[in-house]
Design brief:
Blueprint lengths: L5 E12 L2 E12 L5 E5 L17 E4 L5 E4 L1 E7 L14 H14 L4 H17 L2 E7 L4 H14 L2 E5 L1 E2 L13 H18 L6 E3 L2 E2 L7 H14 L3 E5 L3 H10 L6 H7 L7 E5 L5 H10 L2 E4 L1 H6 L7 H6 L3 E4 L11 H19 L7 H15 L17 E4 L2 E2 L15 E2 L5 H11 L5 E6 L2 E5 L6
Parallel strand pairs: 1-4, 6-7, 7-8, 8-10, 9-11, 12-13, 13-14, 14-15, 17-18
Antiparallel strand pairs: 1-2, 2-3, 5-16, 16-19, 19-20
Helix pairs in contact: 2-3, 3-4, 4-5, 11-12
The structure holds guanine and fe (iii) ion.
């Protein structure tokens, strides 16, 4: 789609490294017709118009008072098909949660109309939360998985779309018939995405063995082969829950560890996203680091279905690459802003056992939600920050300006109330701790406006 050259004028904030939150109060970012950042100025007055290239006719988009531009969030692990169950998990833990809530819901996606209603809703909702990229699990169904890819493409969300493979320890009404059918159906979804987005510019297929307990050795090995033959990314779950880990030990008696099961199958590579990683042993972390596989930390889910507290500081200190995932609907929220907050609070619980250095700061958690996530999904240097050459995957944030005490509450800006005396760091902290989707006024992917709220001008 041909876009306008656009100048985004106002404060911009992004994470340069884990600890370096770059705040530019008077910025200007020029985005070209292809949705790429071609100009970044830290002083809007001086740099207002780039000297060459027809910028005098560019469209201009400005922030509101106290507002700022921030990179779009990257949700590195979300089950699109489980969205209707967000918030519904009772007192279950992983294995009974799967049987009670999850498999019955996922099996209903053989009904394409139902799939359409739910998938349209989850893509619209995650965009409204500022999620510009999502790594989705769909279900076993080829038509519904292809539909999810179509919906992401038409709504403009960058997505990795995975057809779920599972050929054992699953209910009769919901599982793959054989290794051959799992591979054939995965290939059918890859072919569909190749057809709608040949270069995988926006939508990329992702090979998705559900997790070791629900895949036979043969299926894991076949998907490992497909992963190597196609060069496509892969995603799965690892070491989420203690009973699950015991089950893996009994199902794979010759394997040294859960991570080793994936390694044996050729599924532990730089293009692998491992969700949860709550109970990894030091040897498993070492193996994952050696293979350069990536970690999706899912704190809301790990608390909700009481899986445990992942040691994010340890993983970061050891050099593992970590991003955040909502894991809907093990996780109750589809909001990456809420997930960021959950990551901070879970780290405080780890700190209560292990010492203050386990605590994640606001800046660090935001890094995981943006630039860390970009590394996890293999898009480092393309998304997750504001630098020349990167793509404009961004959100405009608005905060509430507090006037007199008698003034009506600003419903548009929700709970984030700025009194005007805060530093930028404090405004960002208020957004992370008290904000929600009302604060995300507009969202762009590759320069295309994909969501906006009342009051947005542009
Ligand atoms: N392990 C296997 N399947 C699932 C799932 O759907 N969600 C979570 N959180 N863990 C899993
Ligand atoms: Fe999950």
């Amino acid at each position: 789609m041909a876009l306008h050259k656009t100048l985004y004028i106002g404060p911009f904030i992004h994470c340069k490294t884990l600890n370096d939150l770059d705040i530019c109060p008077n910025g200007l970012i020029g985005v070209d017709e292809d949705g790429k950042i071609s100009h970044v100025s830290r002083d809007a007055k001086e740099g207002l118009l780039p000297a060459q290239g027809g910028w005098e006719h560019a469209k201009i988009v400005r922030t509101e008072q106290h507002g700022f531009f921030f990179p779009g969030f990257i949700d590195t692990h979300i089950h699109a098909s489980q969205y209707p169950n967000a918030g519904v998990f009772g007192n279950s833990t992983l294995l009974d949660w799967l049987n009670t809530y999850t498999f019955p819901l996922e099996s209903s996606f053989k009904d394409l109309e139902r799939a359409s209603r739910i998938y349209n809703r989850v893509v619209a909702r995650t965009l409204s939360h500022g999620t510009t990229t999502a790594a989705y699990y769909a279900t076993v169904h080829v038509p519904a998985t292809n539909l999810l890819a179509d919906i992401c493409k038409s709504r403009g969300q960058r997505a990795f779309v995975g057809r779920v493979c599972m050929d054992r320890l699953s209910p009769d009404y919901y599982q793959d018939e054989s290794t051959e059918s799992a591979v054939r159906d995965t290939q059918a979804c890859i072919d569909h995405i190749k057809h709608i987005d040949p270069e995988f510019n926006l939508i990329t297929p992702i090979i998705t063995p559900r997790f070791a307990p629900s895949c036979t050795d043969e299926t894991l090995a076949a998907l490992g082969k497909l992963h190597h033959a196609t060069g496509l990314p892969c995603q799965t779950h690892i070491s989420e829950n203690l009973q699950e880990i015991s089950l893996v030990k009994s199902l794979f008696p010759t394997s040294d560890s859960y991570a080793h099961v994936y390694d044996t199958a050729g599924l532990l590579t730089p293009k692998t996203i491992l969700a949860h990683a709550v109970h990894l042993t030091p040897a498993e972390r070492h193996l994952i680091k050696t293979r350069d596989a990536k970690i999706s930390h899912c704190p809301a889910s790990n608390t909700a279905i009481t899986s445990g507290r992942a040691k994010v500081r340890t993983m970061l200190d050891e050099g593992l690459t970590v991003g955040l995932g909502t894991d809907v609907s093990g996780g109750y929220t589809s909001s990456m802003l809420t997930e960021t907050r959950e990551a901070i609070f879970v780290s405080r619980h780890v700190a209560m056992d292990e010492g203050d250095e386990a605590k994640l700061s606001v800046e660090e958690a935001l890094y995981l939600a943006t630039r860390g996530g970009a590394k996890v999904v293999g898009l480092e240097g393309r998304i997750g920050g504001f630098e020349v050459g990167m793509e404009w995957d961004a959100q405009m944030v608005r905060l509430g300006a507090v006037g007199g005490a008698e003034e009506a509450l600003d419903e548009r800006a929700g709970l984030v109330e700025v009194f005007g005396e805060e530093t930028w760091e404090e405004k960002v902290a208020k957004w992370v701790y008290t904000g929600d989707d009302r604060n995300t006024v507009a969202v762009w992917v590759k320069g295309r406006l994909v969501h906006s709220r009342e009051g947005f001008k542009g």
